[in-house]
Design a protein that fits this description.
Elements lengths: L18 E9 L10 E6 L6 E6 L5 E7 L2 E8 L4 E2 L11 E3 L4 E10 L1 E8 L10 E6 L5 E5 L5 E7 L2 E8 L27 E4 L1 E2 L12 E3 L4 E8 L1 E13 L10 E6 L8 E4 L5 E8 L1 E11 L2 E11 L4 E7 L4 E8 L9 E6 L7 E4 L4 E7 L2 E8 L5 E8 L2 E2 L5 E3 L6 E7 L3 E6 L6 E6 L7 H4 E5 L5 E4 L5 E8 L7 H10 L7 E5 L4 E6 L7
Parallel strand pairs: 1-8, 9-17, 18-24, 25-33, 34-40
Antiparallel strand pairs: 1-4, 2-3, 2-5, 5-7, 6-8, 9-12, 10-11, 10-13, 13-15, 13-16, 14-18, 18-21, 19-20, 19-22, 22-23, 25-28, 26-29, 27-28, 29-32, 30-31, 30-33, 34-37, 35-36, 35-38, 38-39
């Protein structure tokens, strides 16, 4: 592959105090020009403010004149059907615009994927108005579709990655089936009769997520022919009680029943009575989560619980609701200035993430935190510094789940200088992706334990802000985005670590590696 990013200063034949930025946007797979790509330039020292903007024309070309001399970072907005270069890609690295020079950028755009299929009943007849959910295997999110009159579904604009697919009949009386025109036209009862319902069915034909087939969506892939034959399942009564933070019964609480993926609209909804009791009358066996919320004055109280529904009625589910609280913290050891990592609290089961802000002095403040289990995510890497620890109650919880409540002391995020660094080259690696992954399989903080970057036109790569550890290093040719969860699976489950290089890094080390491209295990 030709160089993806070419920065060349070419003296002009006439006096000029400013630089010119010009270039072309093209389909990374076909090299066809891509129109409508928005190119924005910001100073490398303050990337929040966009100073210059241009849009690619029908030939993919764009041009920005009268750019003042300085160091800049380019960012890109893609038209429909494409994914723009990301922060770690060479196209988004800082560059210098000298007076009187022309800087030329080549911007590869990644074509998105698509999927098509249809939903059939047990007799092979198409079923309209079925909700079809395509969800990511390693992260939350995906796409929602509805089958048409021929039982067909389709979705364009899919970010490359790994997905699973399920067809979910819209049943009367459920949150999705309150309007008759939204209900799937199926027989009121499956062939098995009373005590059974039409069940969400994973592709190709399983009512359990363990039987779902993983679908790999690559760049520009047009996937079709996915047929899902709906199945049915027996159901049972699920009953329980809701209590407040003082252990008293909580009435008027709305409860939502979500299946094992915990994503999308609830399958059923209930409300607790004055005694705190609630009931879901038709629940399939398997893994579920219940989320609860109630308005108490100006505050929303919430709660959640995970459970495994047995193959019989279950009458003893306990749900607790609590008001929100604020949690403080501090990022310590960062260099002077405004450059700071982002800190987020990611709930394991909850409604939404708390609102966290970080002051110029490193003070962390999070609002709308509810008691429960979280992962503390630290985003971003400061050159020359690494994340040493994330302390809660003086315990390092990097990559771990931690329980947070009103009594939790301030969080401490500790940074240290002299971060290890890895640089090197990949043989025939222009545009390849170089990867470093912590060899400690128990370190699950994907944002720190897995680092990936695209090589430049010469196959060179550079990782800064690493922490001391033993790493596996390898490179591959991407056919789309590969999530960090998929990287972990490829390394530890599919055996990629047997072919990867191993490098041990101590504080202050700089290692130079020469990598070869490895085939990605599917």
């Amino acid at each position: 592959m030709k160089a993806l990013l070419l920065l060349a200063g070419v003296p002009l034949l006439f006096a000029q105090d400013a630089a010119v930025i010009e270039g072309s946007a093209f389909n990374r797979l076909t090299n066809a020009p891509v129109a409508g790509v928005v190119v924005e330039l910001a100073l490398a020292s303050a990337t929040a403010e966009r100073l210059y903007t241009a849009t690619s024309d029908a030939t993919g070309a764009f041009r920005i004149a009268d750019v003042k001399e300085g160091d800049y970072v380019a960012s890109f907005q893609a038209p429909r059907g494409y994914l723009p270069p990301q922060t770690a890609d060479p196209e988004c690295k800082p560059f210098h615009a000298a007076r009187g020079a022309i800087v030329r950028l080549k911007v590869p755009m990644r074509p998105l994927g698509s999927v098509r299929g249809r939903v059939l009943d047990p007799d092979g007849k198409p079923v309209p108005r079925v909700r079809v959910e395509l969800f990511k295997v390693h992260y939350a999110g995906g796409a929602i579709m509805t089958t048409d009159a021929r039982g067909e579904f389709s979705e364009d604009g899919l970010i490359p990655g790994y997905y699973q697919l399920r067809a979910r009949p819209v049943l009367p009386g459920t949150p999705l089936g309150r309007k008759p025109e939204d209900v799937s036209p199926l027989a009121p009862k499956p062939p098995e009769g009373e005590g059974w319902i039409w069940a969400p069915t994973y592709y190709p034909d399983s009512i359990d997520i363990s039987g779902a087939e993983t679908i790999a969506v690559h760049e520009g892939s047009g996937l079709s022919g996915y047929e899902i034959h709906l199945r049915s399942a027996p159901v049972y009564h699920l009953r329980g009680t809701v209590s407040d933070d003082e252990g008293k019964p909580a009435g008027g609480v709305k409860l939502f029943l979500l299946s094992e993926i915990g994503w999308g609209r609830a399958e059923a909804q209930a409300e607790s009575g004055k005694d705190g009791g609630f009931e879901f009358p038709a629940v399939r066996a398997g893994d579920w989560r219940i989320t609860a919320e109630a308005q108490r004055g100006t505050l929303t109280w919430v709660g959640s619980v995970e459970l495994r529904m047995p193959q019989h009625d279950f009458d003893d589910v306990k749900v607790n609701i609590d008001p929100p609280f604020a949690l403080d913290g501090k990022v310590e050891g960062a260099p002077p200035g405004k450059l700071r990592p982002m800190v987020e609290l990611e709930p394991v089961i909850s409604h939404e993430s708390p609102d966290c802000s970080l002051g110029d002095d490193g003070t962390l403040h999070c609002e709308k935190v509810y008691p429960g289990r979280y992962q503390i995510i630290v985003l971003g890497h400061i050159p020359g510094y690494y994340l040493k620890s994330v302390l809660v109650n003086d315990r390092d919880v990097r990559g771990q789940e931690v329980s947070l409540d009103r009594g939790t002391p301030p969080i401490r995020v500790i940074l240290k200088p002299n971060a290890p660094r890895v640089r090197g080259t990949v043989e025939d690696g222009a545009g390849a992706v170089a990867v470093l992954i912590d060899a400690d399989q128990d370190h699950t903080d994907a944002f720190q334990a897995v680092r990936a970057t695209r090589c430049d036109g010469e196959g060179r790569f550079d990782f800064d802000g690493l922490y001391p550890a033993t790493y596996y290093a390898f490179a591959y040719v991407p056919n789309g985005n590969v999530e960090t969860g998929a990287v972990r699976e490829a390394v530890f489950t599919l055996g990629l670590k047997q072919q990867a290089q191993t490098v041990r890094l101590e504080e202050g080390d700089t290692a130079t590696l020469a990598l070869k491209i490895l085939p990605w295990p599917e």
